[in-house]
Each structure stands twice: as C-alpha cells, then as structure tokens.
Amino acid sequence: MTVCNLCPRSCGSDRPLIVSAENPGGICGVGTLAVLARAAVHEWEEPCISGKNGSGTVFFSGCPLKCCYCQNYSISTECFGQPVSIERLTKIYAELEAAGVHNINLVNPTHFTEAILQSFPQQKTIPFVYNSSGYDSVETLKRFDKKIDIYLPDLKYSDESLAWKYSRARNYFTIATSAIKEMFRQTGPFVMGENGLLKSGVLLRHLVLPSHIENTLRIIDWVDQHFETDDILFSLMFQYIPCGNSEQYPEINRRVNQEEYNLISDYLDQTKIENGYIQELDSAEETYIPSFDLTGITKQIGKDHHETYK
Predict the structure, then answer these.
(1) Rounded distance between C-alpha atoms, residue 36 and residue 61, angstroms
(2) By CB distance 3.0 to 4.6 Å, which of 55, 164, 169, 276 could disulfide with 233?
(3) Helix orientation angle between 172-187 and 213-226, rounded to the nearest 10 degrees
C-alpha cells in the first residue's frame, strides 16, 4: 500500500493496488494499479490534437475532483474500468500508435502518476498528452517534466464557491492556475507542426457552465492577463449537457443557451486571445460522449467517427 498525496486533496490514503470493501482507497476511488475504461482512436478533440488520424486516448478511471456534472461520471465517480499492469499499459500505447494516431492522450492521469511514469516507452516517437481537470499539484507535475509534450488542462472555476458547490474542491482557482503556470514553464510557448498538429505546449480548456457567465468571463480575463497571444492555445467549450447528479442543481440542469453563447463569444473577441477554438452550441450532444466499454483493453482498438469542432 502507498500513502498518497499525488493530487491537491492530499488525502494521505493508504491506496492498495486494487481497492476493496476493506480498503476503498482515497478520494479518487481507485488503487495504484492503473484502471482503464477505454483506449481508442478518438476524433473528438480539438483539431490540432485529433488531426486526420485521431488521438490515441487512454481513459483512466477514478478522479481526484469528481465534479457532480461530469460527462464521464460512470468512470470518474463510479470508477468503472479494468485494472491493467504497467506492462499492459505500455503495450496499449504501442497498439494505439500502430493504429496511426497522432499522439497518446492520457485522460485524467493524475492519480495514476506512479504507474504512468513507469509505463512510458524508453523512446517516444509521437507526443504524449497530459489531459487533466487542472486540479493538479505542482509537485506532481514536476515529475512529468521532459516526459509530457502537450498539456491539455481544464480551468473550470474562477469562482471558488462554485468549485466547492459542484466539485467539493477548496482553492480550486489558486491550485489550478499554479498548475497551469507550471505546465507552461515546462513546455514554453506552443509549437504547431506544418501539418496543423500541436507538437508541444499548453492547450487550456474551459467548459462553460449554464447560468454562470461571470465564472467564464473571469477565466477569460485571467488567460488574457497572464499569457501573450502566442504563449498558449485557449479552447472555449460549449459541450456541457446535464450529466451525473446535475439534476440536483436546477441552475445547471440544462444546456448553455444562445444568449449566453453570444455574450461569452463577444467578450472573448474583445481580448488579445487569438489562438484557439470556440465550440458550436450543437456540440452539446450525448452522441459525443465516448462509450466506456473497455474498448482497447478487452476489445479491439477502433475509431469514433464524430467531429465536435466546426
């Protein structure tokens, strides 16, 4: 068992290899042996990540943050998935690369830091992507220096009361912005290849929550104030749909509406933020949520055929 302080919650749990009724592990809900729900060619990320051939996404189960509205609720909170050995995880990377993907995309990796660090191939031939909620500790991120090529964090909340209400996270904004600065320190300004694919850098995402426009505007302000135009890419996501336990919160139990979309888009246009993406409202559909069915773990690695960004 391992006393765990990998994420900002620092719960100090004695995480076993695999959780049990006797030892349920820490807040993340999983043991130290990596648990995967899906490993597949994924075409729904930003164009500079998915490209023509797709991103090799590895969806890890469990989560330190556990947002009540998570679109991946069945794996993040309910922890559906299958434990895999470090050797098998390394082979999954190779199988994805053999399928022609542009990168290996580690989705929600923080709580499996130890296993992931041990699973890295000796020589990388395509970029590795660290795709997280942004709720990361600087100390843990430093362990990935020179190993991760692209950071793909979310910045969910500028309003700490919302972070507590929906994710039971204290000091989210302070912690996440410190983490994002560390990510940028490691990668430097983003580098785009001639093929339009991101080679290295930070692509910062923000998921717009309905009814909470000020939360989003303050996120935009922070990005505008702390980064130059060519430092990072900024992705404004309107794919929110009510999932998980969002029905318990009427204000977020709906999609973002056109008025909110227009207000936020117009506000972004007034900043110096020029590099990145804005999703269309019709990206908020359940068909864009991956099937967490152990594909690539117990089933053949395959493709999803949808385009989210337009």
Answers:
(1) 6
(2) 276
(3) 30
Q: Residue 309 and residue 72: Cα distance in Å, rounded?
A: 19
**Cβ-based neighbours of 257, under 8 Å, separated by 6 or more:** 210
Q: Which residue has the tokens 């909470």?
A: 212
pLDDT of residue 299: 57
Which residues make beta-bridge pairs with 107?
59, 131
Helix, strand or coil, per DSSP, at residue 174? helix
**Alpha-carbon 274 to chain mean position:** 22
pLDDT digits (tens, 9 = 90+) for 245-299: 999 999 999 999 999 999 999 999 999 999 999 999 988 788 778 899 999 997 5
CB neighbours of residue 176 within 10 Å:
28
The answer to whether 74 touches 244, Cβ cutoff 8 Å, is no
Q: Are 150 and 187 in contact (CB under 8 A)?
A: yes
Q: At residue 19, what is the residue type? A: V
